[in-house]
Task: inverse folding
């Protein structure tokens, strides 16, 4: 616990700064637009004050192709309902295959049951063209929904690119999702086609999903065709599917094919993502082809520093927006690296071994994975050749100062560690990294270009060096264009805009420092209030993560009605051990020493597992509501959890307290 938040860990060299993509962009701005920016913050400030000129410069810098010229950058001044480049007609897939002449691989992919393979740009192009023809023959066209129930494998990327090339709308769910969870997603959007596997492998175990597929097909009367991928078993029987077409049949061609691209409006849908669905049916969040194209070009090239020849990996499933972000790497000409399976199979070094095998440049993962690697005393730099590694990026939850420091002491000392914060809502990060900036322990390097991020107090006043609500106070292209089936826009309005009218309120607590870095403290609706002092749950987890006996923890704030509250901490002990009085005292002492007496929980309980969403996130608010006496069925959709039975503990505890 020696590392302090804000400790300087790394500064890029002058050569690294000069050779970065963002420096090239600044030079281009000065030469062609006569816009002088002295440093990153000066560039960011200009990008959020002159929004139209900034996004127009991104369009020009990346040579975005439109079938007809745009006349206006955006219409309207309100954050909700802004229309970007309204006259433009584009196609996302077309921008991916501008890179098809590259000699580097387009994709490297592996899984627990597949050896590492390289896919050329030409093969990716031909498979996409063949599948496009198959989908067209089945009547799929612009605006139709294509649902995918498949893992993070090569075929899924082909299926997405073929779908987007037609102007159809993509939506995916990972096969580790339960039946009801997938139904809750796909029934809302009425897909016309479905792409599915027969099952998947995780942690060395096979999971057959043919019965689930059969149930899904019965629950989706809109389906007209099914593309089947025999992933678990090459002899899998898909006869129960609607009009099944095998993957081999769908992508086999005896001649060279040419992709055609359906022009769509900049603001037409590209895909439908979903909220976690913990408190009801998941919200179907719709993003635009153009908004995603511009934002991912900007974020991946300028912030992640990707270019043709880069090798870009993120550990993700198709049920998390990071899969969509990873696919965006193709826009930059990078080789994207796909992995399907457990991150700790066949051992805890699996992903670090993959980094060596693939000569990975960018290693994207969750903060919890970095913390786990640290707690297991792994030392990837000792065990593997990571000479090609340039960046470690993490998201999903705040990365602790100790996690930052471990990356330098045990992974590599000359990389930039980039924590990021954003979400499914915008399919990108509002706050992320830059290879031109120093790295401070526990702090996100910078707000993203074009993202006018601020921290507000309860009265809407901007804060610096204090914790407040993360808000976005200017329009942003990859905001949702709408929620599916939300014609009035009320559901979207209440999700983001009713806390501060006209301002996007993201739901996270944030501190913006006077050096323009940021610290995320967790969800604002899960924050603990002890004697009027607000405490982010991430502050608690930072300490409990480093108590030797603790595997995982969850803390809840239960108001008593007299201005005070009960704050129970729920602990999973490592290796199935028991929560002893000595462990409890260790937890309390660590929190008192490294945080404050207010951070010490009023009660500590032991349980075998914590409830987690399908994306692996802690479930704080629903557990709080259950413990406050609300009916579990009304406050959480069990289908949104990896382990729904884990709620039984809290339901019983609520009866006692």
Result:
């Amino acid at each position: 616990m020696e590392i302090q938040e804000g400790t300087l860990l790394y500064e890029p060299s002058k050569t690294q700064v000069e050779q970065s993509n963002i420096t090239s962009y600044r030079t281009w701005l000065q030469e062609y637009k006569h816009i002088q920016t002295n440093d990153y913050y000066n560039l960011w400030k200009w990008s959020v004050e002159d929004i139209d000129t900034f996004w127009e410069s991104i369009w020009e810098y990346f040579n975005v192709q439109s079938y007809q010229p745009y006349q206006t950058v955006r219409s309207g001044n309100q954050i909700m309902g802004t229309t970007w480049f309204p006259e433009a007609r584009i196609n996302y897939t077309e921008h991916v295959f501008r890179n098809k002449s590259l000699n580097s691989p387009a994709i490297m992919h592996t899984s627990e049951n597949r050896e590492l393979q390289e896919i050329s740009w030409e093969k990716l192009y031909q498979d996409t063209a063949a599948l496009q023809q198959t989908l067209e023959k089945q009547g799929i066209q612009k605006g139709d929904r294509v649902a995918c129930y498949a893992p993070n494998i090569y075929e899924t990327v082909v299926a997405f690119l073929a779908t987007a090339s037609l102007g159809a709308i993509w939506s995916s769910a990972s096969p580790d999702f339960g039946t009801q969870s997938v139904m809750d997603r796909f029934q809302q959007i009425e897909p016309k086609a479905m792409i599915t596997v027969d099952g998947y492998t995780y942690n060395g175990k096979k999971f057959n999903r043919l019965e689930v597929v059969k149930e899904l097909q019965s629950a989706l009367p809109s389906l007209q065709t099914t593309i089947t991928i025999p992933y678990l078993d090459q002899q899998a029987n898909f006869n129960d599917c609607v009009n099944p077409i095998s993957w081999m049949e769908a992508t086999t061609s005896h001649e060279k094919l040419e992709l055609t691209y359906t022009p769509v409006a900049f603001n037409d849908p590209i895909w439908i993502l979903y909220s976690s669905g913990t408190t009801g049916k998941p919200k179907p969040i719709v993003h635009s082809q153009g908004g995603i194209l511009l934002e991912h070009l900007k974020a991946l090239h300028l912030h992640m520093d990707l270019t043709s020849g880069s090798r870009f990996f993120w550990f993700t499933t198709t049920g998390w927006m990071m899969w969509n972000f990873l696919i965006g790497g193709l826009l930059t000409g990078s080789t994207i690296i796909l992995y399907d399976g457990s991150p700790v199979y066949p051992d805890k070094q699996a992903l670090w071994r993959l980094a060596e095998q693939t000569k990975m440049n960018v290693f994207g993962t969750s903060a919890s994975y970095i913390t786990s690697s640290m707690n297991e005393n792994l030392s990837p730099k000792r065990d593997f050749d990571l000479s090609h590694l340039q960046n470690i990026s993490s998201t999903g939850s705040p990365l602790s100062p100790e996690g930052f420091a471990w990356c330098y002491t045990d992974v590599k000392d000359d990389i930039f560690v980039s924590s990021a914060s954003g979400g499914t809502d915008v399919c990108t990060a509002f706050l992320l990294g830059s290879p031109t900036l120093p790295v401070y322990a526990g702090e996100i390097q910078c707000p993203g270009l074009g993202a006018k991020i601020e921290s507000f107090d309860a009265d809407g006043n901007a804060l610096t060096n204090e914790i407040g609500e993360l808000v976005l106070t200017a329009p942003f292209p990859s905001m949702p264009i709408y929620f599916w089936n939300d014609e009035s826009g009320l559901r979207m309005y209440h999700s983001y805009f009713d806390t501060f009218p006209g301002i996007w309120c993201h739901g996270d607590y944030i501190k913006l420092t006077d050096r323009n870095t940021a610290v995320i403290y967790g969800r604002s609706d899960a924050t603990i209030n002890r004697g009027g002092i607000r405490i982010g749950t991430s502050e608690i987890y930072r300490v409990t993560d480093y108590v030797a006996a603790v595997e995982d923890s969850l803390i809840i704030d239960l108001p008593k009605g007299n201005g005070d509250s009960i704050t129970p901490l729920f602990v999973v002990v490592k290796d199935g051990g028991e929560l002893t009085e000595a462990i409890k005292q260790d937890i309390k002492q660590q929190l008192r020493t490294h945080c404050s007496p207010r951070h010490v929980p009023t009660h500590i309980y032991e349980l075998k597992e914590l409830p987690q969403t399908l994306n692996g996130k802690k479930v704080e608010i629903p557990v709080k509501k259950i413990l406050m006496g609300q009916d579990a069925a009304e406050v959480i959709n069990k289908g949104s959890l990896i382990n729904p039975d884990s709620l039984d503990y809290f339901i019983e505890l609520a009866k006692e307290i």
User: Anything to note?
Assistant: The chain has a mean pLDDT of 92. The chain is about 30% helix and 25% strand.
